[in-house]
Every structure is written in C-alpha cells, then in structure tokens.
Amino acid sequence: MKTAKHLIWTIFALVVVFSTMLSACASPTAAPTEASEPEDAAEQPVIEDKELNVLCTPQEEWCAGMKAEFEKEFGISVSYVRMSSGEALARIQAEKDNPSFDIWWGGPADSFIAAKEAGVLEAYDSPNMANLIDPAKAKDPDNYWAGVYMGSLGFATNTNWLAANPGVEAPTSWDDLLKPEFTGQILVAHPSTSGTSYTALATILQIKGEEAGWEFIKQYAGQVAQYTKSGAAPAKFVGLGEGAVAIVFSHDTVNEIENNQAPLKLTFPAEGTGYEIGGMAILKGAKNMSAAKAWFDWALTPETQSLGPKYKAYQAPTVKGAVASRPELMEAKLIEYDFQWAGSHKAEFVDKFSNEIAAADKLKE
C-alpha cells in the first residue's frame, strides 16, 4: 500500500486566502499558499432551457444552497431530489430509458465510474475542466464525470461517552474498531445506500487485501450497533449519544461540531484512510441538456466551489483559485485509493456485503 502524500500539497495549492484557521477537530496548519489562477473559460454557450432537474447527493443544506445560487445567477428554475449515492445510482439505472434528472451532482467517484460502465452518463468536455488542479485524478479520461470536491474518511467519537468510560481512547486505527469496548457502539451507513460506507469498505479491502479485508469486515460488522441509510447520519446519531463511534467523512464530523455543537472528537486511522472525490455528471438522455451543461461549467468555477461553508459543507475544492475552508482535514495519511478498481467492483462488493454480512434492511434514517 502506498500513501498519497502528493495530495497534501495539492490541497494546499488550491487555497487562495485563509483569514483564520478553524480549530475544531484538528490542530492548525501552516499558512496556505496562494493557488494559481484558473484559466479563462471559453465563451459560454446559449442556454435554451428554462428548468433543470438535479439529483443531489451531498447534505440537504448544500443541495438547497446550490439550487438557490444557480437560480440567482442563471434565472433557471431548479428542482432537486436529495439521495445517497447508492440510491442515486440505482435510480439512474432504473430510469436509463427515460431519466427524471438532467445532472447528478455529488457523491463519491466510485459511483460515477459504475454509472459510466452502466452506460447512463453523457460525456461532456467542459471548458472549465481546465480549472481542475489534478485532472488525472479529478475527472474521467473520457469526460463522463468531473470532481467537484474532496473529503477524507475518519472516526467521530462521542466525548461524553469517552468521559463516562475512563481509560478508553478514541480509535486511531482500523483495528481499534475490533476492541471489546466498542462492541455494539459503532454506527456506519450501509454500503448499498451510502457512498461513504462503500468508500470505507473499499478502503479496508485496499489496505488489507481482499481475503484479509473481508475477514476483518465480518469481524467489525459484529461491532456495529446500527446501519444507517445516509453516510453522514452516523455522526449525527453518535453526537446525540446513540453510539460511541461513527465511521464518516471528516467534513461531516466538522459539520456536526460547528453547527450542532455535537460532543465529537475526530480521529484518523494511522495506517491510512481512504478519501472521496465527489463527482458530477450529465445523465444520458437529459431533457434539459443546455441547462445541465451550464450547471456543469458553473460547478467547476472557484466562486462556486468556495460556497460550501456558507451551506455547512467543509469538503476541499478541486479547482484552482477556490478557498479550502478546512485543508487540515486532508492532512490525514491517505492511501493511494484506486477509484477505478472500487467503481468497477462496486456491484459485486455491495452484493457480497448485503448477502453475506449485513442485509440492507431496517436502516436508520
């Protein structure tokens, strides 16, 4: 297993301004450097459509915020439905002959790779692809999807629970999840509905290898108190005292601490953790193609990618010139996460997990 140390300087390269470093969840980092300016985009095409239907995977506040910002800038009426990435992928595949949505925004790239292989995406070579800091990682080589944010996996532990259990420390490795003190105390989403959870599953398999990884996953599943539908939900419920440890993206932990004053401590596995590149793609057969392309172009601008914190989203951006509100979240030891491998095996691995380890029933909303 190799680590992705080059991603650290990549994240710092995309910071333009950092007035103050927020301190919750991580220690302050060195002052960021100024990113190179994004290249000038080509002249924007005429937008003929008056409406746009968006399938949105990030949290509700961010989806609603993006809708409002796009409507304000373009005068196009936006309708959206919020779904976890697993649900979104299933919906898109079910509707491939008559899609309800024009564009899918957000969710781990693994799902977009699976969608490309299923033939449900429309290729689009946006002029704003030139803004991407690392196009080799942050977009599909055939232009079927592009990355719009990044986020690292971590553990969120309830500090009240830690105080009530002297001598117990928050987990700092994947193996810590098997400790007896965490039996029945772990919350995580189900990989059939959540891209967050699938990223965790694929991370473990990449770190430990498939044979040892599946054996570990079977053991750690015995520690889980509850599976949720949404990837961010475990941080919320652990913050409310319904468990001790959540396996979530680190920005979701920050959201709970910053906006809900949740008693949570963020830690990362020392041996390495996975990360997501949140994707975006136009759907094949989109009924509002010009509006979908306008959204795609708009989402790859530094101004749009700097909007996240306004809507309680703390993911790192993917384009030059955008402001990273919490770059320290990408300072965890990151593995060389293989997105193509994870995306190609998604259906196989989710079926194996659901059939052999934990069925996708009675998921906590």
Radius of gyration, in angstroms, nearest whole number: 20 Å
> Termini, distance in Å?
35 Å
Uncertain spans: 5-37
How many distinct domains?
Answer: 2
CATH topology tier name of the largest domain? D-Maltodextrin-Binding Protein, domain 2
Largest sheet: 10 strands, mixed
Which architecture of the largest domain would the CATH scheme give at its second level? 3-Layer(aba) Sandwich
The outline comes out as globular
Q: Structural class, from helix and strand content?
A: alpha/beta
Query: Which band does the percent of strand residues land in?
Result: 15-25%
Short overview:
This protein is α/β, with parallel strands linked by helices. It has helices at residues 6-13, 60-74, 85-94, 109-117, 135-138, 159-164, 195-208, 210-221, 233-239, 250-260, 289-299, 302-305, 339-344, 346-356, and strands at 51-56, 77-82, 103-108, 121-122, 146-158, 186-189, 224-228, 245-249, 264-267, 275-283.
